[in-house]
Fold this sequence. Notes:
Blueprint: H1 6-18, H2 23-26, H3 28-33, E1 39-45, H4 51-57, E2 60-67, H5 70-79, E3 86-90, E4 102-108, H6 116-126, E5 127-137, H7 144-165, H8 187-197, E6 202-206, E7 210-216
Parallel strand pairs: 1-2, 1-4, 2-3, 4-5
Antiparallel strand pairs: 5-7, 6-7
Helix pairs in contact: 6-8
Amino acid sequence: MTLLPPRLLRALDRFHAARPWDHNAHFHPWVLRQLPPRVGSVLDVGCGSGDLARLLAARAGRVDAVDADPAITARARELTPPAAPVTYLVAEAPTGLPDRSYDAITCVAVLHHLPFTEALVAFRDRLAPGGTLVVVGVSRDGTPVDRLLGIASIPLNVVMALVKNRGRRASRPASMTARTRQPDMTFPEIVREARTVLPGARLRRRLFWRYTLVWRNG
Length: 218
C-alpha cells in the first residue's frame, strides 16, 4: 500500500476506520477446513478474544487457548459459554506454552510476534503423531509478487468492508483490539526456515497481506 499516494492512503484509512472488518477472522473457515471433523485436543496460540477457540470447541474435546495479553484473555473468557471445552491461559509463547501434546495447533497472525524458529520448534514438539499445524501469518513485502498481491488486495479490501458491514458504520470488533507488530521476515525467508524445521510444510501466499502454512506430523 506504500505505492499509493498519501491522500488516497488517508482516505482508505478513514474508510476502514468507519467500516472495520477482521482480516484474521476471514481465514477462520479455511483453518477449520484443514482439520478433521472431530479432533481430540487443540492448542490455539495467540487466541486474542477467543473467536477461533470457540469455533474449534465445536469439534474438539479440549481447546487450550493461549495469549500473552491478560485483558484480551479476560474478554475471551467473558465471550465464551461456560460449557465450552476451552481453557484460556495467559502466557508468553513459545516458552510458556503447555507442556503436553495436541492433535492440532493453530496460530493466526501471531507468529511474526514470536521468535520464528523457536516457535515452530515448540509447535512441532507439541504436535501429536498424525496431528496438524495450521498457521495464518503475516510477512514483509520483499518481492514483486508480494507487491502485486498487495495491490490486488486493496480494492478487494474495500469490497469486503462494504459486504461485511452491509454499508453501515461499525465499531471495531474485540478481536481487533490486540497489539500489532510489523513483520520482519519476507515470504521466501519464511519458506526456507519453516521447511528446515517442518520438512514437507505447505506454504502459500494469500490475499489480504497473509500467508498460510500447513504441516502434518507424519
